[in-house]
Write a structure and sequence with these properties.
The chain is of the alpha+beta class. Helix content is about 45%, strand content about 15%. The chain has two domains: about 150 residues, Jelly Rolls (Sandwich), CATH 2.60.120.10; about 130 residues, Homeodomain-like (Arc Repressor Mutant, subunit A, Orthogonal Bundle), CATH 1.10.10. It has a six-stranded antiparallel β-sheet with strand order 1-2-9-4-7-10, with helices on both faces. A four-stranded antiparallel β-sheet has the order 3-8-5-6, with helices on one face.
Length: about 300
């Protein structure tokens, strides 16, 4: 399996955390199913290879095979796989950018996978063209042009949500959410609504998934900690707290997850996710002097 990050233009960096390609070797065309753990990202997948399919862990696949899909934030793990050779272009949106970039609310994408033409406002005919093309290079060119077109027509991102996401991410989810609301000069209720409307998640759920992702990165690191050390390092109260969230978000125990070898998830949890976390975190201190005013 070959993974490659694709550079983003200045315009796309406002909305897109990363663009990547995944391509299987010619001799590695066997259909695969990979576990994808819970995540706060909205991802757009343009697949020029065999159709994609998905399922919740322990359940049959629900979405009929498709080549272009949008996957929303996940509160539970899912299986995601191809029916043959993989030649995919993936787009990971900033958590604060999904609402202005798509015509549907991220809340409607929560723990769901839709055909891409159901959630974007442009390119229905062109999306059908990519479904009849097996070339990754041509697909990448289409995706970049399509994203630029979407970005030019998107409304501005909500700066308060961007600040809140970065403030929570900077502390890996271990933060008092009432303090973030105070920074934005909004009530707790207004903060909840603003955050959920733009990311699809409540601030508390977002912080919980961030904490889980920290544990996942530690488990996948070359010098990984012991399971006894993992909980405190990732911000969990105790081992039972860690075990509960792993069962919910990964569908397995920390020990079993540590010992699994899944090629696609290795990419997401080790390299790609860590780099994207840095993009999300940014530097929340840049807006530290901003005097936020509620509507």
């Amino acid at each position: 399996m070959r993974f490659r990050k694709v550079p983003r233009s200045a315009l796309l960096r406002r909305f897109v955390s990363s663009i990547y390609t995944i391509e299987s070797e010619e001799h590695d065309a066997t259909p695969v199913e990979q576990r994808f753990v819970s995540s706060f990202w909205v991802e757009l997948c343009y697949h020029a290879g065999s159709p994609l399919k998905r399922a919740d862990i322990g359940k049959p696949f629900k979405l009929e095979s498709a080549r272009t899909v949008a996957a929303g934030p996940r509160l539970r793990p899912m299986l995601f796989g191809s029916t043959g050779p993989m030649r995919m272009v993936g787009v990971r949106l900033h958590p604060w950018a999904a609402l202005p970039f798509l015509w549907t609310s991220p809340k409607e994408l929560l723990s769901a996978v839709h055909r891409l033409e159901e959630v974007i406002s442009l390119g229905g005919d062109r999306l059908r063209q990519i479904e009849g093309d097996d070339g990754l290079g041509r697909a990448l060119g289409f995706v970049l042009a399509h994203l630029e077109q979407l970005a030019r027509r998107s409304s501005p991102v909500e700066p308060r949500v961007r600040h809140a996401v970065r403030a929570i991410a900077e502390r890996s989810g271990c933060v008092r959410l009432c303090e973030v609301a105070e920074e934005l000069n909004v009530s707790g209720r207004r903060f909840q609504q603003l955050f959920r409307d733009n990311t699809g998640l409540t601030p508390r759920r977002f912080a919980s998934i961030l904490r889980f992702e920290t544990a996942v990165r530690l488990l996948r690191a070359p010098a990984r900690p012991s399971l006894a050390q993992l909980g405190p390092l990732a911000g969990y109260f105790d081992q039972s707290h860690l075990a509960r969230e792993f069962e919910q978000y990964a569908g397995t125990t920390p020990a079993r997850f540590r010992d699994e070898a899944m090629a696609l998830e290795e990419y997401y949890t080790a390299g790609n996710m860590a780099e994207d976390r840095e993009t999300v975190q940014g530097d929340s201190r840049r807006s530290g002097g901003t005097r936020w005013r509620d509507e």
